[in-house]
Amino acid sequence: MYAPESVTTSRQFPVEKTMQAWVLGGPGELAIATKPVPVPGPAEVLVRIDAVAICATDLEVIEHGPPARIQGGLPFNKNFTPGHEYMGTVAALGAGVDEYAIGERVTVEIHAGCGRCKRCRQGLYTACLNYGRNYGDDDKGHRANGFTTDGGFAEYAVNHVNTLVRVPDHMSDGEATMVVTAGTSVYGLTELGGLVAGESLVVIGPGPIGLLAVAVAKSLGASPVILTGTRDTRLEIGRALGADVTINVRDTDAVAKVRELTGGIGADYVLECAGTEAAIGEAIAMTSRGGRICLAAFPHHDVTVDLARLVRDNIYLCGIRGEGRSATQRAMALMASGRIDVGRVHTHTFPFHDLPTGLRYARERIEDAIKVVISLRDGPAAAPRSTTPEGT
């Protein structure tokens, strides 16, 4: 059995020495492999993974590589396990860990950073200056599970205690995996955007981050909260999560409508979650003078936009990477209190061995999949579960 030196284990939670994990081969190639169960160091715990959600960035990593960086380069054919939106149960404790106990349910944020660079010391560990430097003679201790270190498409993972968030008993495993998505919305709206009650907000793109941003903004008192997109089914979910107005950009000029709704001045804040040139252009055009724009999606190509208007009208633009400054803790508080209903974006669940099907549903948006969860345990994680067989 698993019993590394200086690691605390429990007979109630026995751990084998090896585990099953999905490993990335070449681009787009995932295979099940047997790997050693990782060993937590000081200030770390071993997490038995109970559920893991699929993020659009996972699809990017698997197909193209970035933003993952393993051993100084692309993550392919390096025995790397992707996946970063997971939750589970503390199964073992590294040396000196007394903040958590074996058996506690936890969910995780991705980034631990290095803890030593200027950005990490400022709390901006998602912008760690030593990103990816954690191997060989170039080991600065950086950790971002699923990006620069092994992630959650496995039975176990190691996490620093600073990345853990306790899960309340009433919350399902599937809901708990959403804390990173909700935390990203919190981080973009509060820490980077400085959103205050009474300000107008437009969210462009009703994907998981955009939909939960609607809920977060509404809970923080933004008014009006406006959601734009191209799918009526997604916009309907946005209304259920608190959007005051939804706009289908296929049949309505979003910029003109936003200006109409804001008395002609434009929105105080725009959170852009689509990542297209057209959407970024619309964000700039619909923002008021002195307003703010946060880019929360990765554009796949270079974009051409009206930068002159940003300068001329004193518009502030920022990018967001992940869920920094412990935004996951605040997101969990909103989730646990019922202020945001993350269950509305959880549409499908598949078992661990069927990860490729889950990835296909997420990539191709089959059955209008929004957030797909992979379950490693029986019980509350299984709801909702897709009953549609692969290939339909």
Tell me what you see in this structure.
The chain has 392 residues and is of the alpha/beta class. It has two domains: 18-180 and 326-382, Quinone Oxidoreductase, Chain A, domain 1 (Alpha-Beta Complex), CATH 3.90.180; 189-319, NAD(P)-binding Rossmann-like Domain (Rossmann fold, 3-Layer(aba) Sandwich), CATH 3.40.50.720. Helices cover 24% and strands 25% of the residues. It is built from eleven helices and 19 strands. The protein has helices spanning 56-64, 118-121, 173-176, 179-192, 208-219, 232-240, 254-261, 277-286, 307-312, 327-336, 355-364, and strands at 18-24, 30-36, 44-53, 85-93, 105-108, 111-113, 134-135, 138-139, 143-144, 156-160, 164-166, 201-204, 225-229, 245-248, 267-272, 287-295, 316-319, 346-351, 371-375. Strands 3, 4, 5, 10, 11, 18 and 19 form a seven-stranded mixed sheet that branches. A six-stranded parallel sheet has the order 14-13-12-15-16-17, sandwiched between helices. A two-stranded antiparallel ribbon has the order 1-2. Helix 4 crosses helix 5 (208-219), helix 4 (179-192) crosses helix 10 (327-336) and helix 7 (254-261) runs parallel beside helix 8. The longest helix is centred in the middle third of the chain and has 14 residues, at 179-192. The relative contact order is 0.14. Residues 379-392 have low confidence and may be disordered.
Helix-strand blueprint:
Elements: E1 18-24, E2 30-36, E3 44-53, H1 56-64, E4 85-93, E5 105-108, E6 111-113, H2 118-121, E7 134-135, E8 138-139, E9 143-144, E10 156-160, E11 164-166, H3 173-176, H4 179-192, E12 201-204, H5 208-219, E13 225-229, H6 232-240, E14 245-248, H7 254-261, E15 267-272, H8 277-286, E16 287-295, H9 307-312, E17 316-319, H10 327-336, E18 346-351, H11 355-364, E19 371-375
Parallel strand pairs: 12-13, 12-15, 13-14, 15-16, 16-17, 18-19
Antiparallel strand pairs: 1-2, 3-4, 3-10, 3-19, 4-5, 5-11, 6-9, 7-8
